[in-house]
What we know:
The protein has five helices and 30 strands. With 495 residues, the chain is an alpha/beta fold. The protein folds into two domains: 73-188 and 482-494, no CATH class; 196-474, no CATH class. Strands 7, 8, 9, 13, 15, 16, 17, 18, 20, 24, 26 and 28 form a twelve-stranded mixed beta sheet that branches. A hairpin with a 7-residue loop joins strand 5 (162-170) and strand 6 (178-186). The chain is elongated, with a radius of gyration of 34 Å. It starts with a helix and ends with a strand.
Amino acid sequence: MERQRLRCKEGYAKDQGMALFGVIVLTLLLSLLSAVLLQLAGQEQLSASAAKDAAVAQHIADAAADMVMAWFHTPQVRPPQVSAVLNKRHQTSTGSPSFFDPAGRSQFIGTVDRPDLVLNAAKSADDRILNDPVSGLFRSLQDVGTVRSLKVYAPTTPGLLSTVDIAVAPARWPSAQYALSMQLAAIDLPALRAGVQVGGNLGWPQNGQESGALVHWSRLSVGGNLVVQRLEDIPALTALASVSGQGYREVSVREDRWCEVWTGGTVQVMQPPVGESQFPPLPLNVHGGQNPTPGVRLDRWGYEQLKQIALRYGTYLVIDRNGLLYPGGVVEVGQGVSPDEYFRSGSAGDARGLIFIDTLDRTAPRPDNLGVLRLSAAYTEATLVVQGHVVLSPSSGGQSLSVLSPPQPGQTDSTSRIPVQLSGIHLNGALYAAGDITLDQSTRVFGAVVAEGTIVPSTPGATLEVWYNHEMSQGLLRGLPVVLRAPGTWKVRYS
């Protein structure tokens, strides 16, 4: 019996030893597993942190690329260090500024080693230009990272505008750089180089039918004859003229620093000065009898060119004989909408882009295929190309705008432009009509207006008063891209 108890104790001790050994082994395995899990968690944390930094860097690079493209669209925000490089240096056959020479070659000719424009943050002067927290080009990005370099040089694909290389570093990991390269394509839009342009006569030689076009800050170009009520209706050209948002009917003497009048035919005054005929001596800023030599410079927008641009980058509409509009080029009974639905902008900045209204039969304009578009929206911000006639009848007081005058006469520096507050503006942009423009109500415009026919008031005393937007002389039109990223050219790399 005693021997049996001893054997039981020995067996129990052996079982305890095995259990203890199992616990030790299990503890060791759990320790190893914990170490592995901790290491994996650390690696995941590092990977997540790296991915976050990469995402931040990509956003910085995207923002920097968008800012470079904005420089092309908005010259007044360009820094002086890059403005000269980005200005258009060539001209089209019609005289409009262009990025390309007559052979279609881009003005950007540099290489990656010798770019047209380079800013490198390794140089303290360039670093201040790029990243200075007060004046740097990319100071808005300082909380998330810095731009290390910026290059603009020739495109690698013929027909494109340029290559842009940008390198950035996130603030949390400044030694890691993210670089992108992209190529830009350009839309060479035709410029509008005068505030009001009319292909035919402007005004008729009878009371109440004189010209109702009033132009600030630019030329008035008339292909035919010009008829005005009084000689004083033509603004005097003087460098001492006030630059303000006051309309000509709000001042006792009409003066302007930029206004000149060019007509192909005669200038007739219905109420001439005492003792003068209806064709009195004209002020020095009025140039009559220009046709056929040397001619009046009128900007013509090609039908097919603008149609294709609208189909790709804007809004393409067709019109019926009732003035209703249809998207997509198909007139369907009961589907037409009023022009106000497309043209009404809620406030400044609510741009509608390029809106192209085709002829009745969707072919090039002729006298027998022109529709009639009635514009009655209180405020429209757009570039309107109407292959027909237009009736201007704004419904209310318009919009107040903060704008810049053109550069001072004889200067090109943007710092010479004067801030001006305009009120009662009904159209902020451009209006191009292949036919006539009829004034049912007085209309104020910031931008430019072109009628291949004429501009005529249907209501006595109705006027079209235009403050010229100087950007349009460079082919910069509201809501239309000047440059865009060329598809398939976006490349990124990490280092």
